[in-house]
Amino acid sequence: MTIEIGVEEIEDIALGATVLGTGGGGDPHVGKLVAKQAIEEFGPVELLPPDELDAEDFVVPTAQMGAPTVSVEKLPSGREAVTSMERVEREVGKTADATMPIECGGINSTFPFAVAARRGLPVVDADGMGRAFPELQHETFNIYGVSGTPAAVSDERGNTCLIETDDNDQLEWLARGVTVRMGGVGYVSDYPMTGAQVKETAIPGTMSLARDLGRALRLAEDDAMDAVREVTRESIYGEARSLFEGKIVDVQRRTERGFVFGHVDIDGLDADEGSAMRIEFQNENLGAAVDGSYVATVPDLITVLDRETGGPIPTESLRYGARVRVLGIRTPEIMRTPAALDVWGPASFGLDATYEPLADHP
Predict the structure, then answer these.
(1) Do 143 and 39 share a structural domain?
(2) Does some domain include residue 360?
(3) Rg (CA), the chain
(4) Taken in order 208, 197, 160, 153, is the CA torsion positive or negative?
(5) Mean pLDDT in order along the chain per 10 residues (362 residues)
(6) Confidence (pTM)
C-alpha cells in the first residue's frame, strides 16, 4: 500500500532518519527544507513499497555526497540531483519510474523526496545501506551485484560529470574526486536498476521506519529511548539498547579527501560514572569503545542522543559539554552476511575489532 508523504511526514522522516543515520548522511535540516519546499510547490509524494514495483520498472536513486560539514555551508537549491538523474536517463535511454534513497540517514533520507516532487515520481520505501555509510560502494546494491554506473555527479552551478566504470570501488574513487573539486559536496545519481533488482538487493521499509521513529520521538512524553525501543522492536532491525550515558569532554574533527574524520570522548555519568567511551567516525559513527574495549561496531548502528531532549545528534553537531546517551541498534540480516561484512565490517574502516552483532535489549 502506497503512503502519501507531505510536509508533516517529511519532518518525521528527517528526525527518524537521523537516528538511523548514525550521525551522518548530511545535515537533516537542510534536506528537510529542500524536500518541504519541493512538496509545497509540486505536491505530495507517494512512498511505494518495493513489492509493488514491476520487474521492468526503471529506478534511479538520488543522493548528496561529500563532507557533512561542507553541506551545511553550501546549501542546495534542490534541483542538483534532478540534473544528475536526467543525465543518467539520457545515457541509458529510459525515463525513471521511481527514485530511491541510497541510504536512510540525514539529508539522503529526504533529498529523494525533493527530486520525486519535482519530477512527479514515487519514492521507493527502501535503500541500500539501512543506515548511513561514507562511500558509494557501501551499498547492498553493490554487494549483491548491481552496477553503480552509469552515474552522474552535479553541483549547485549546474556542472555535471558522467561516470562509467566496470567496478563500483572505482565509481566511489572517481566520484569522490569530482565531489572534492566541486567544493566538497556534490549530488549523485547512481545504481540505476530494475524493479526486480530493487526487490532482490534493497533493504525494505526503511523510509516508513524512519517516519515511525520520528513520529514516536516527536510524540514521546517521557523517555525518548523507550519510544525508539518500541518502534525498533517490531522492525527488521533489532530492538535498540542503551550503550552509555555521559558528558562529551572532547571532539576532534578533520575534513580530508571529502570526508569528516574524527572521534568524540564521553565521560560516564550515573551508572557509567568512572568509565569513558570513545566513538570513532568517518562522516558516520563507526565504532564505540568503553574503557578501550569495543561494545559496538559497524555495520550496527551507533547513535548519540541528547540526554535532555532525546533528539539525535549528527557528528557535525557534537559539542563539548553536551550530556548524551549513546544507543545501539542491530542491523538487518541482509547487512550481516559474510559478503556484506567484507565491504563494511570493522576491518574495512581500519578498526581493530571483530564484528559481533548487538543483542536485542534485555
Answers:
(1) yes
(2) no
(3) 19
(4) positive
(5) 92 94 81 93 97 98 80 75 97 98 90 96 97 93 98 94 96 94 93 98 97 92 84 93 97 84 96 97 94 97 92 90 96 95 94 89 46
(6) 0.92
